[in-house]
Amino acid sequence: MVPLRGRKGCNRVSNKLRWGIMGAAGIAKGAVIPAIQQSETGVVTALASRDQDKAEAAAKEMNVQTAYGSYEALLADPDIDAVYIPLPNHLHREWAIRAAEAGKHVLCEKPLALNAGQAQEMVDACARAGVHLAEAFMYRHHPLYELVAEIIRSGEIGEIRAIHSAFTFNNADDKSNVRYRKDWGGGSLYDVGCYPLSAARLLLGTEPEAVTVQTFVSAEHDNVDMMASGLVEFAGGVALTFDCGMWASFRNVLEIVGSEGRIELPQAFVINSDNPVFHVHTADQTREIKAPQVNAYTMQADDFAAVVRGEQPPRFAAQDAVANMRLIDACLLSAEQRSRITL
Questions:
Q1: pLDDT at residue 8, rounded to an integer
Q2: From edge to edge, which strands make up the β-sheet containing 17-22?
Q3: How far apart, in whole angstroms, are the C-alpha atoms of residue 218 and residue 112?
Q4: Which of 12, 168, 172, 197 has a beta carbon 3.0–4.6 Å from 245's, enabling a disulfide?
Q5: Chain CA centroid to CA 268, Å
Q6: Under a CB-based contact definition with an 8 Å cutoff, are residues 261 and 287 in contact?
Q7: What confidence category does residue 27 fall into, taking pLDDT thresholds of 50, 70 and 90?
Q8: Alpha carbon of 194 to those of 5, 125, 283: distances in Å?
Q9: CA distance 22 to 172
Q10: Is domain 17-136 in CATH 3.40.50.150, yes or no?
Q11: 15: left (phi over 0), alpha (psi -120 to 50) or beta
């Protein structure tokens, strides 16, 4: 492979990808920035906010050298190779496209956009600019999922019959949170439902045929879906049953049910880097499997850099994000119409 074009490939001296962080969101400061700083492939060069004082405070807190008081200034910096976008969902499309036009590679938080049409625009813009676009589903980069896939391929649990998953948390008291702004792309399907949906597609290696979803909507939270429960139908009678929520007890689980056994992931999406385990249950035994102790966010950054440097193809094509958005679109439409939606 040859490196993607972009404005620059990597720092010529250190060969590290130079990152600019677009915003001071909690996920950026709590997970992504430290992960890049711990990686062998990247360095966080600058952080931008729409407020210079906020940018400087966040940059100082995270030990980032340069702070910008606008996203435009960050994109104009010739010493930035790639940007990470953790902005509210409704801003993803605009700033990913502007970053691509500035020659920057783009790692964008999930969900990639507000709908599949916007996501396709982002994919097309990055393709025209010759830059790498990736959706930040960090869990997919953890070797735990490679081990799960190996067990499925081995036939140990037989043929997959069903997948069950839940990703819920309770943050309902924080009514000013961006997750509770409907016009900003708030709601549990966008925020956490996207994980079970992407995981089922990943594990089954195919796209769904139909969905049926019911939601609990809260007037206290700008009428976003605070909870959603759904059935996602795949070929061969296999289905994902899932629920997701932002006003429920914390759960972070996934179960793959086979004809001869099942795989249980007690840490499906938020994976404990100190104890990444899952369980395989068959008629003869139950065994615990421990995956390598790695930071999924660091693995995500390393995979991203390897693509930019031409060392490997993307593990997950940008078009995959469009497919996942198409599924989210169908889930939202099903909830709105209270009907089964075919894809």
A1: 47
A2: 66-68, 42-48, 17-22, 82-85, 105-109, 133-136
A3: 24
A4: 168
A5: 13
A6: no
A7: very high
A8: 30, 23, 32
A9: 26
A10: no
A11: left
Fold of 143-293+325-342: Dihydrodipicolinate Reductase; domain 2 (3.30.360)
Above 60 in pLDDT, residue 11?
no
Name the residue among 1, 12, 5 with its Cα closest to residue 43.
12
Predicted confidence at residue 12, as pLDDT, reads: 46
The rounded mean pLDDT for the chain is 95
Residue with tokens 């249950």: 281
Instruction: Name the segment(s) of the chain with CATH classification 3.40.50.720.
Output: 17-136
Q: Check residue 13 and give its pLDDT.
A: 42
Q: Provide the pLDDT confidence category of residue 15 given band limits of 50, 70 and 90.
A: confident
Q: Does 330 score more than 80 pLDDT?
A: yes
In which residue ranges of the chain is CATH 3.30.360.10 found? 143-293+325-342
122 three-state secondary structure: helix
The DSSP call for residue 115 is: S
Catalytic residue positions, numbered: 110
Whole-angstrom Cα distance, residue 336 to residue 325?
16
Amino acid at 222: D
Q: Alpha carbon of 300 to those of 3, 276, 303, 307: distances in Å? A: 18, 16, 5, 11
Which amino acid would we find at residue 31? Answer: A
